[in-house]
Amino acid sequence: MKIPGEVVNRLTLYHFILEDLNEGDVYISSKKIAKFLEIDDSQVRKDLKYINTVGKRKLGYNAKELKKAIEEKLGFKKTRDVFIVGAGNLGSALAKYSTFKDYGMNIIAMFDTDPKKIGTIINGKEVFDITKVGHMVQKLNVDIAILTVPKEYAKGAANYLAGSGIKYIWNFTPCILDVPDNIKVWNENLIGSFLQFTNRDEVEDDKNDDGN
Prior knowledge:
Blueprint: H1 5-19, E1 27-28, H2 30-37, H3 41-48, E2 61-62, H4 63-74, E3 80-85, H5 89-95, E4 105-112, E5 121-122, E6 125-129, H6 133-140, E7 144-147, H7 151-164, E8 168-171, E9 184-187, H8 190-198, H9 200-209
Helix pairs in contact: 1-4, 2-3
């Protein structure tokens, strides 16, 4: 059964909660998970059906078993090598985010066009000239790239990646990419997330005014 994207996102958040549980917390209820995320506990139970996990009446879910089930279903233990294209502030920050590796993402190299950055090392990842992407895609069999270049370079960089053999682009730029249909793009809308967060109270008020 294919898991919808929004469910994958919530399952990952459930895993964060389970990671932070105390050693003595053997069971966790759907209500407790829901309270952390400010969602309805029925939503939690619906989501957990995707991983074929059943809780015990009055106890909840076995925390260790639930954590393992989420890891197996979402493939945390399957490591995928990844490139970062754009060695600026955001790209460098992502390269230093060690938690990615716990979830199967192994960032192995970075790329840029700035001569001052090429050849430098960021958290053990060398920054290469972007013209080397195609060669390294073939050499290292990498098909995923994180795009963190400035907006004005985003479309050109995406097209270059598509022509180099990259099949998946995680797009952190404020730009909608126009790439061939065989290239899968996930847009990480940081600005939209910020505005959604900061306007949350206003949205809730509007719902209440509408009687919803």
